[in-house]
């Protein structure tokens, strides 16, 4: 799980609809 500087969970969906959580090191499921 990845959080922004405010502590909110950073969560996005890629073009295929898979859910990813963004980390500063790159993309991680």
Automatic annotation (TrEMBL):
Pfam families: RHS_repeat
Highest taxon of source: Bacteria
NCBIfam families per the UniProt record, alphabetical: YD_repeat_2x
Protein name in UniProt: RHS repeat protein
Origin species: Cohnella faecalis
């Amino acid at each position: 799980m990845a959080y922004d500087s405010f502590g909110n969970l950073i969560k996005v969906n890629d073009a295929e609809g898979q859910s990813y959580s963004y980390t500063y090191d790159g993309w991680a499921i």
